[in-house]
């Protein structure tokens, strides 16, 4: 098998709100959109697809579910700069900048539909 691209698809109530959030604050571009659907792309990341809750393209037993318990993580080169940029843009930080004992530095923001976006950088666990 040869994988030619990767996408994550999330079910939300307000597709345009989530699409606008990723476009405005994370540099994604809308590749395709229709009623209840938006496909966003960025050259250096997996594609993100938003589907409106209840849309018939989803299997019937999951149509009414929302994206929950899922987060999108982006590893970035300058976590501190991204933290300050997003705060300056008025994005509410829902998990403040922190460092885990295993060397992960991170913070989280949440889009208008409750989709969690986590920005990450890595350091050696001993701080080097």
Question: Could you please describe the fold and organization of this structure?
Answer:
By secondary structure, the chain is α/β, with parallel strands linked by helices. Helices cover 17% and strands 38% of the residues. It has two helices and eight strands, in the order E-H-E-E-E-E-H-E-E-E. Strands 1-4-3-2 form a four-stranded mixed β-sheet, covered by helices on one side. It has a four-stranded mixed β-sheet with strand order 5-8-7-6, covered by helices on one side. It is globular and about 45 Å long. The chain starts with 6 loop residues before the first strand and ends in a 6-residue tail after the last strand. Residues 2-122 form the VOC domain.
SSE diagram, text form:
Elements (H helix, E strand, L loop, with lengths): L6 E6 L2 H12 L2 E6 L2 E5 L5 E6 L18 E5 L3 H10 L4 E7 L4 E7 L5 E7 L6
Parallel strand pairs: 1-4, 5-8
Antiparallel strand pairs: 2-3, 3-4, 6-7, 7-8
- For the termini, the CA-CA separation is 38 Å
Helix content: 10-25%
Q: Strand portion, in percent?
A: 35-45%
Runs in which pLDDT lies below 50 for 5 or more consecutive residues are: none
Cα radius of gyration in angstroms:
16 Å
Using the alpha-carbon principal axes, give the shape. globular
- Name the average pLDDT: 91
The total of helices stands at 2
Major beta sheet summary = 4 strands, mixed
Helix-strand string: EHEEEEHEEE
Strand arrangement in the largest pleated sheet: 1-4-3-2
Count every beta strand, where a strand is a DSSP E run of 2 or more residues: 8
Structural class: alpha/beta
Protein name: VOC family protein
Pfam families: Glyoxalase
Keywords: Metal-binding
InterPro entries: Glyas_Bleomycin-R_OHBP_Dase, Glyas_Fos-R_dOase_dom, MMCE/EMCE_epimerase, VOC_core
